[in-house]
Amino acid sequence: MTATATEQTLPRWDMTVVYPSLTSSEFVKDFEALLGAFDDLKALFNECGIERRETVPMTAETVSTFESVVNQFNAVLTDLETMQAYLYAFIETDSRDAVAQARFSELRQHLVTLDQLETRLTAWIGGLDLDELATRSALAREHAFPLAMMWIDAAHQMTPPEEALAAELYPAGAGAWSKLHGDLTSQIDVRLQVRPGEDEQSLPMSAVRNLASDPDRDVRRRAYEAELAAWEGAALPLAAALNGVKGEVNVLTERRGWPSPLATALHANRVDPATLDAMMGAAEAAFPALRRYPQAKARALGVPALAWYDLFAPLPGTEDVEPSSPRWAWPAGTAFVIEHFGAYSPRMRNLAERALREHWIDAEPRPGKSDGGFCISLRGDESRILVNYHPSYGGVSTVAHELGHAYHNLNEAGLTPLQRQTPMVLAETASTFCETVIREAALREGSGAEQVGILEGSLQDAFQVIVDITSRFRFEQRVFARRKKRELSIEELCDLMLETQRETYGDGLDQSAMHPYMWAVKGHYYSRRSFYNFPYMFGLLFGLGLYAPASEDPERFRDAYDDLLSWTGRDDAATLAARFGIDTRSQAFWEASLARVVGDVERFEHIVERRGADS
Description:
By secondary structure, this protein is mainly α. The protein contains 26 helices and five strands. It is 66% helix and 3% strand. A hairpin with an 8-residue loop joins strand 1 (189-192) and strand 2.
């Protein structure tokens, strides 16, 4: 595709405010200093005897040791955060940058030491009387919640030699399996004749999957069939990788005394089982209403039932609306974000303006740059945002989403790294909220065709996050349960994937055209972090639930909302939600959020019926 003038002028982020370059003396000096800081921290731990003890006597020396160790640990994490973000900035925008890759590989080797030190600190915290410590140390009071979480973690640790061995083996165990998945899937080439009469060509898997949004159904079907064939060809090593990761997690879960991998995921996300049950129960109850969306889309596309390869198809008449609209070009699109952020909050508007003025955003698609988008905290209240901007509402929505993460980072500025350990369920709160602000504005101001495209795109996302995420959640539960007995075959993994898809998608999709290899597609299954799925649903529905009080009383809401964002690493989800009168353990809250999505389904059905009557 030939780049337009607009695409050619898309911004790149500015990292020279940190270091002039990767080879500069300033960078080299700080990089070596950081590696030295790991050694200094280890020496301090050894000197102070930071290791597992049944009971640590609460003396003045203990309090002094605690404050010295935690302060230095936070200092190292602060420097590490900036260094990692700086290196990521080069790697994620040019994967062929050999200097950045080499430096990051070198840093990663030293992170094993940091993991081991964190394990030792957690074990030592487990021997402290935290209540008594809090009466004698302001630092302990300021870190009350993360210390309480570490105290629980300490109760689930193996012996120190076992924990040290687990950390050392991770790069050659689950870490290696995860790397295999990433390397293999990023290099799969798919042979495909995209359209009749064209030559067959070799395309990267990402390009083939992108054809799922092609307006031609035959192209979508061809791409889907070619994709499944490619996954089938790569299934043997990927099944081995999945069995390896899940087998290791099962072993470590049992050794650490957790009842299940799900229990560890709930603890890591600061969510209790009652909250998860309430959310998942409300979602399942909403499935029949939500399935009316793909059923209506099938009618709009003129097909009996939506196949998997139709999920992301554009609606007839909306294919060319977004790209042709100058309102979504970069200058106008970002101005739209600034305007409507400002309508909610001057502080949020200022953040967006600053991000553009100070070149926080890398928006230009180019070879070697990672796909998708993300936001990373750089230092202080600064962030860096990666997007691959396309002049469409979707492109603008992604910018708003990532700026939401930057706004979250802004509200956590000044806190220590231990205080900013936001669980994934709450990490999407600000991004979902900002996305909703822009979506509501776009729906109010857009043309008829634009409104249809925006509404349908929003429903696509919500359907994936609620329905598809549930299928992934159930799949992972069943894989963990069966992996306790033995490895699962490729056929068994595919059957489990289809089983959970049919349970959740139900009559919303053509049952004969599902995706049995979704277990191979999703890198989340290969992460050391289990159940990298339900937090997305939590983030969406919690964000939607917060939008209601924001609309009713914005003046009162703003300060409380900013305060909530500053506390996401310092309290659990249920306690923070209670500040807004929200009971996350009540199914009624989740039903209210889901009702907003169901309302969009009904609106979409009405539009489809009206367009059908007019045609």
